[in-house]
Design goal:
Length: 114
RNA sequence: CAGGAAACAGAAGCAGUCGCGGACAAAUUUUUGUUCGAGGAAAGUCCGAACUCCACAGAGCAGCGUGCCGGCUAACGACCGGUGAGAGUAAUCUUGAAGAUAGUGUCAUAGAAAAGGAAACUACCGAAAUUUUUUUCGGCAAAGGUGGAAAGGUGUGGUAAGAGCGCACCAGCUGUCGGGUAAUCGGCAGGCUUGACAAACCUCACGCGGAGCAAAGUUGAAUAGGAAAUUGUUGAGGUUGCUCGCUGACAUUUCGGGUAAACUGCAAAGACUUGGGCGGUAACGCUUUAAGCAAGAUAAAUGACUGCAAUAAACAGAAUUCGGCUUAUCGGUUUCCUGCCGG
């Protein structure tokens, strides 16, 4: 139950809708945009802006967030679409810290499963 | 032992658990298995090409690039060899190195004078005047002073004092002879001499059409766009900046849809890589003799954790593909040079 196939990742056109309609929540490591839109619920995406640094760093941040989501997805509700955006604090952190940030920000957004 | 330079190869592996992308196969409609899965710079986008479209690409002017000579290459501003210049005791290293006698221009401040051969502040020499002091006229450019640079340099003769004024050597220029494919080098002769800047304009030689894979093509829902023919306006837009030339907007008629997306381009294949043989000082070429090439996404795959001999590290992530250059950086190996100590 730890799989994360590609079909769950958002497409290019769908990003704008989430950014426009979603609500944002933040903590030290991660910002999330949450929206409830038909056909897109349950889908997720990971992003890292150019502020963070070069391509290697942005790749690493996205991989960290994806791994953290993959291991904890059963704790998160599947009836909404989420975009995870990495922040500076995530650059030097290991996996356990990334998981901590992810659960913290999800708790603030109240999308943790009961 | 310390420091410096150059070259070479590498940039992590194995096991377990979870996970991702492509291909193939099975099963069958969603799984299972096998296999492959970032770099030396993938980066910067600084050059050169392939490929695609625009007249398969045209003319003139403008503009841009290159700039010792020869070679090499698909091509190049890259690379190799040589020459000159510069640095160094040397090994060796560096080098944007055409033309200043085609012309125009610039050379601040200082200095008497900063560009055709001119000029004279102090000084030196001669003459005249004058009571010593000094003044005027003439000669000179050796010495001083200014400057990044003062109109060849050093020595000697010469002279009232001086001066290429004469001579010797050196540097440069012109001519000529010889070596070299050439840049250029060496010898001889001549008259004595011509500042620097072309990374100022410019001159000369050679080269350059433009846009780029978000190119371009195919299939294809709606709103609609496209193709062909004819006549006319003298004419939209495009083709590099301009002028030509080319193309043909719009109107009418006829045919009849082609935007979002998807697929192709796009990855097992070619200017390929390594080794052998042959040619060449080398860059490189020939040979087919041997071996090897298998990433291909589109919010974008190659990751996480644990363990194993070290703490696995630095710079850093493919996006149409090649040849170079530049920049970033980890730990090694080899060779050469320098310094110190010992023999």
């Amino acid at each position: 139950m730890f799989e994360l196939p590609k079909s769950k990742i958002l497409r290019k056109q769908e990003f704008k809708k989430i950014y426009a309609q979603g609500k944002s929540f933040a903590c030290r490591g991660i910002v999330i945009y949450v929206a409830r839109i038909e056909n897109l619920n349950g889908k997720i995406a990971f992003a890292a802006g150019k502020k963070l640094g070069c391509a290697v760093i942005r790749n690493r941040v996205k991989r960290l967030m994806r791994e953290a989501y993959r291991l904890n997805q059963n704790k998160i509700r599947q009836d909404c679409a989420i975009i995870f955006v990495g922040r500076m604090a995530l650059i030097d952190s290991k996996l356990d810290l990334a998981e901590k940030y992810l659960l913290e920000v999800c708790k603030r957004a109240k999308i943790l499963a009961e």
